[in-house]
């Protein structure tokens, strides 16, 4: 019977974990920036797009760490094909983003608001940054999933080594030799009879 290599439950839990970690990292970075009186507006241009290297660096690191942790959770829950399940978190994120954009466009059209144009313009202006983010997310999810899968591999290896050790120890036990009895006791009987006769 074939076993599915993609575990939807593991991918979903890993995706939720990556979103939570991303939220914590970004919230922490904003809190640190505000406590240090750093002007966040200076890192954005007039269209609200990041232009500062440090701003982009924080985004890249945040995405990599969040998807790495999410991929680790997915890989550990899946127990096999961790790299695939970790990478699928990125696919799920893209699908969720596409669904959200579609929903916003539909709602905007129903209200007579042009939402599709600004979305396309924004995506086009930050296309390079988005590509880098997706690449880092895939790498992070894949590495994290592989590491999470490796937990069970290491566990199986340790259990197999322990089982082999116990088996070797059991086979190495030498039973105490049992003295063999002489099958032919006739000579001893004749000797005893000759002694009694004498």
What does this 3D model show about the protein?
With 198 residues, the protein is mainly α. It has one domain. It is built from six helices and no strands. The protein has helices at residues 8-35, 53-78, 82-110, 116-125, 127-172, 186-197. Helix 1 (8-35) packs antiparallel against helix 2 and helix 2 packs across helix 3. The longest helix has 46 residues, at 127-172. The N and C termini lie far apart (84 Å). The model has no long low-confidence stretch (mean pLDDT 78).
Measure the end-to-end span. 84 Å
Class derived from helix and strand content: mainly alpha
> Would you count the extended β strands for me?
0
What percentage of amino acids are in beta strands?
under 5%
| Oligomeric state as shown | single chain
Poorly predicted runs are none
Task: Provide the number of structural domains.
Answer: 1
Major sheet? none
Query: Number of helical segments?
Result: 6
Radius of gyration: 35 Å
The sequence of SSEs as H and E is HHHHHH
Mean pLDDT: 78
Overall spatial form = elongated
Percent in helix: over 70%
């Amino acid at each position: 019977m074939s076993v599915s290599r993609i575990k939807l439950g593991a991918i979903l839990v890993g995706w939720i974990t990556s979103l939570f970690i991303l939220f914590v990292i970004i919230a922490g970075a904003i809190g640190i920036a505000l406590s240090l009186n750093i002007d966040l507006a200076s890192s954005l241009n007039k269209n609200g797009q990041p232009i500062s290297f440090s701003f982009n660096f924080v985004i890249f690191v945040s995405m990599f760490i969040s998807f790495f942790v999410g991929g680790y959770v997915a890989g550990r829950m899946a127990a096999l094909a961790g790299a695939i399940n970790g990478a699928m978190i990125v696919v799920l994120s893209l699908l969720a983003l596409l669904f959200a954009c579609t929903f916003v466009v539909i709602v905007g059209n129903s209200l007579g608001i042009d939402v599709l144009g600004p979305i396309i313009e924004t995506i086009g202006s930050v296309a390079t940054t988005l590509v880098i983010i997706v690449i880092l997310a895939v790498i992070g999810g894949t590495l994290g999933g592989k590491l999470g899968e490796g937990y069970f591999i290491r566990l199986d290896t340790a259990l197999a080594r322990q089982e082999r050790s116990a088996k070797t120890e059991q086979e190495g036990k030498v039973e105490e030799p049992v003295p063999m009895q002489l099958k032919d006791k006739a000579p001893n009987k004749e000797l005893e009879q000759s002694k009694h006769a004498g």
